[in-house]
Amino acid sequence: MAIFDLLRRLRSKSGVRGQCLVELFDEHGRLKERRLVKNLIVNNGKYAITEQLLDSPSIAKPSHMGIGTGTTAPAATDTALGTEVGTRVSVTKSRSNNVLTLSATFGAGNGTGAITEAGIFNAATAGTMYSRITFAAINKGSNDSLTLTWTWTIG
Cα 88 to the chain's mean position, in Å? Predict the structure, then answer.
């Protein structure tokens, strides 16, 4: 019995886990709202992450974030945002040991409205979705900026 408990604990602590810090700023750079949201790495994202270990991966690396107004809860089979708004933004990436950080800012005029979802993709349009989150509406005005800082922990 003890070996099964150990295996269960190991299984529950391994894999890829993620979260996203969502921050809304006004036109003067003052923080208006901050949320920390657990994320779902969708099936295609898991495949794409493992694909990167191959000599010649056929799936591009994560490169863009998108935001939207969809409210359907994330599902492992998601391939797109529910209702994408604005233009996707290129991400900056960094790594510290087993933690990957991806960050992007949606500036004034890009993706305004009641933002309720976000995702990580490997293209400026279409492409493979790696991750998706939904959250209670953050009202992004036309002069506001929205910064998303995603962290993925492997292990």
Answer: 12
Count the Cβ atoms, other than its own, within 10 Å of residue 106.
25
3-state helix, strand, coil split of the chain in percent (to 5) is: 15, 50, 35
What residue numbers bound the domain in which 126 lies? 16-154
Which amino acid would we find at residue 134? T
* Other residues' Cβ atoms within 10 Å of the Cβ of residue 110: 18
Domain count, the chain: 1
Is-contact 109 142, C-beta < 8 A?
A: yes
Q: What is the DSSP letter of 9?
A: H
Is residue 124 domain-resident? yes
Is the residue at 68 inside a domain? Answer: yes
For residues 5-33, give the mean pLDDT: 80
pTM more than 0.85? yes
